[in-house]
Amino acid sequence: MPKRTDIKSILLIGSGPIVIGQACEFDYSGTQALKALKEEGFRVILVNSNPATIMTDPDFADRTYIEPITVDTVEKIIRKERPDALLPTLGGQTALNISIDLAEQGILERYGVEMIGAKLEAIKKAEDRDLFKEAMKNAGLDLPRSGYARNLREAQKIQRRLHFPLIIRPSRTLGGSGGNIAYGHEEFKEVVQRGLNISPVHEVLIEESVIGWKEFELEVMRDHKDNVVIVCPIENFDPMGIHTGDSITVAPAQTLTDKEYQIMRDAALRVIREIGVDTGGSNIQFAVNPRDGRLVVIEMNPRVSRSSALASKATGFPIAKIAAKLAVGYTLDEIPNDITRETPACFEPTIDYVVVKIPRFTFEKFPQAQDILTPQMKSVGEVMAIGRTFKESLQKAMRSLEIGSYGFEEKIEISANRDENLRLLRQKLETPNAQRLWYLADAFRLGMGTDEIHGFTRIDPWFLEQVKEIIASEGRIKERRGKTAELTAGFFNPLKQMGFSDRRLADLLELPDAEIRALRTQAGVRAVFRAVDTCGAEFAAYTPYLYSTYEGEDESNPTARKKIMILGGGPNRIGQGIEFDYCCVHAAFALKEDGYETIMVNCNPETVSTDYDTSDKLYFEPLTLEDVLNIVEREKPDGVIVQFGGQTPLKLALPLERAGVKIIGTSPDNIDLAEDRERFKQLLEQLGINQPESGTARSYEEAQHIAERIGYPVLVRPSYVLGGRAMEIVYDQESLRHYMTHAVAASPEHPVLIDKFLDDAVELDVDALADGERVVIGGIMEHIERAGVHSGDSACVLPPKSIGKDIQDEIRRQTVSLAKALNVRGLMNAQFAVKGHDIYVLEVNPRASRTVPFVSKAIGVPLAKLAARIMVGKKLADLGLTSEILPRHVSVKESVFPFSKFPGVDTLLGPEMKSTGEVMGMGSSFGLAFAKAQLGSGMRLPFQGKVFVSVRDEDKESVCAIAQRLHRLGFEIVATRGTAAYFHSRAVPAEMVKKVQEGSPHIAEAIKNGEIAMVINTPTDAHSHADSYYLRRNALDYQVPYFTTIAGADAAVEGIELLKEGELDVQALQEYQAAGGRSG
Fold first, then answer.
1. Closest Cα to residue 676, out of 822, 572, 506?
2. Residue 358, Cβ neighbours under 10 Å: how many?
3. pLDDT digits (tens, 9 = 90+) for 148-191
4. What pLDDT, in 10s, does the model give residues 487-513?
5. Which residues contact 1037 (CB under 8 A, 6 or more apart)?
6. What's the Cα-to-Cα distance from 1054 to each of 904, 929, 966, rounded to whole Å?
7. Could you tell me which of 348, 327, 306 has the C-alpha nearest to residue 122?
8. Which residues, at least 6 apart from 858, have a Cβ–Cβ distance to it below 8 Å?
9. Which residues are CB-neighbours of 153 under 8 A, at least 6 positions away?
């Protein structure tokens, strides 16, 4: 049946900000769906609060609403746009939850909006555990025994029926939020209580543990004629008990017999039919007891999921695109396969290679968090690798992670105390953690057997044997040390086929990397590139989507066209997220439009950059020097872009240039000039630009001397980092000693940078474009939080709110002179601090920064596209941008944090970046834009109630004005003794409340009991941070809006004043951009 003609316009709900459990895979699936629907001639309306995604660019939907994803906001958009249909299955759990609420509150019916893609009944059957249980019973399928509880008493009743350990899962959360395992009564009570608090419907599922069972996922698609295809069976390397997003996963499944797979496949068909998803994709998770083969259904997502993105990239089958087409009436046999152009979508993909996904964790950002993996997701990104065998793709994935690993490096010193080592290993094997894969290798090195390791880890023996064989090969490699003549093709071929990197071989043979590469190529052992074709090479592939291997023939077919290679950003992590992928995609689009052949290199399966139709050619490969050089040798590009993918490709810039690769845009030497402290300091002196007093220390003694010279507080950090890694504000000598001994090991090769910390300064971020002749400012953003909060974590506003025109103009002048001095070709980001009338440069990055998508949307100019064109020789005048655009509206960016995923972690912001994503609020005034940004980030500003205030002495005067405004708005003020006394002396009524350490009834209890509507708390210095930690943590856990800076509290009050005056209006990005801005 062809597409429906009774639908003309479709509303698509995005997934909002990037958070743990819901990352950029929904940007990828949403972008794909928007393209598919527009291709079919539908008018598409999008709502998504995330500015960093490609999908919220104004070209993808007809109307793009960068607005908070709340029921009220979406209802306003529906009232204004009157869509015929709502597609809820492409924006993760966020879109699904909002769609259920819109339907249940009668909003869809009121405006005559039909839900397509999945009917409400099907969504509820899959999402509501009781209905799901009933449905599975009807389908004759087994589930873990379980029960639902809405309070602790009900939970304890269920617990008596089942045996410990038990798994507790809160209902309707994402990424397994609040999910955990309880091994005993006390732990059970704690986990249940936390789960009830975090669940939007105040309900938890308590189920029998299937920990240690094998876990599988099937990606299934079904159309309204009941055609069903299984896109891909995915097997988890890690057993049940670890969230699937935190597990290493393998496609296709490796350890199922054909009979077992057919049984699972039949079960999947029964699930999708029983639930009733009849136009789209679903993800179904199974657990199998390895002892007796019992198969149970764990859950079903009636939507496109994280695994759908992985399955799409693993097979080349575009699940999101096909799901969108099925939702509008097509059947699978009517949709052609883009890759083969011969087979329809009802042909199940067949793959003749193995895909491995490994998650990327950032526990180092949260020192108080334990590196333990549980049913609650904690990873912030992932990598995927493709190889002919499991061993090859596993080792390729390991080096893709960018954690300094190029294979199975030792984690423990094998020659040290054996008993001590075995004790540590048993603990690391038994308790799942981010490093467990490497500890498996050490266990084999120490002589543990497969059965013993299986006993500790419950990882399938087949996978363990594969690791064992890699480790055995390492032993044989070491035997060739000092025998260069034996390093022949016969030596290299089998090892490269197992996925060994040149770098790992170099370590094992104790030779330099470059020498290994030279010996290998002399021996004639070179990578070949094979195509991903969805059909096991039965049909020709028309979309060049390639991976490297060391067997078979090369299928890359390089052309003679002018070509540009773009290096992507690798795995998502805190400090380097989707914003950089956004820039890479823009470069690919712009250069493709200009007639270049574009080649993308990346290893992140979640992103738009690794979609097979973003560039002319996609190499799904690790971003290491070896792997990039292999592609360069094959393709011989006319230029390589390293400035868009964050620190990942930048680290390769100089080594690539030394290898003769042409880097286009700002030269690697000028990038280094901006990153190298000593060189940059000299440049600033020549230009007469101030920077905070600073020094570079290579030992603790040097650090102490510098700190005394420039005066405390000082900002300390290691050199060459992204995302403020290990950056701290140090207030005294004792804290400095602690930092130098615990946080970093300073050395001549790895110096520590020390700057005077400008307390209470206002920070600004400037994005600019330069073409070698002209410099144009993209935007000046003022940080709402004061200096000391990492720029990626601070809320910011464009145009600036409190900085006068004269200071802004001086900042513009300094930015222009810096861009010219660094001979920038493309994008540049500069950070400034303003204290009184003094301006200081904090840092300059002659590359794309994480603010580019936000600024581009705020001013209506695609900065990254223009930058890419400048890199290939265009001038700003040719591109029609010769002066700064000053928008008529206000845009606010707010950051989103993963604190709720890490119990025990303080929510205080500092110089080390901790946010995972961002939202954007736009409006005619600052208050309106800020209120929208808060709503978008999940913080609901209160309209009444008690506001608790506790601030350091130097903030009392400024908080007093805020308290007066709150009092006028009808709020009651509650404060600790000192602050309350100060308020009374200034005639502000305040009720006194005890601090936590002063005994009951104290402020933390008041927060727990729901008596407090908002918290304003600025801690004094490092020592008192701990006193107020408990308070901030409670505010987070009980979802009370809290502000830890005066500027943030002041902005919040402005937002509340505005919200109390009238309703939030909604406006499409296209309307803001049509209103234009004035040229500066």
1. 822
2. 26
3. 888 888 888 888 888 888 888 887 665 556 678 888 888 898 88
4. 999 999 999 999 999 999 999 999 999
5. 194, 197, 900
6. 31, 10, 10
7. 327
8. 779, 798, 887, 891, 920, 922
9. none
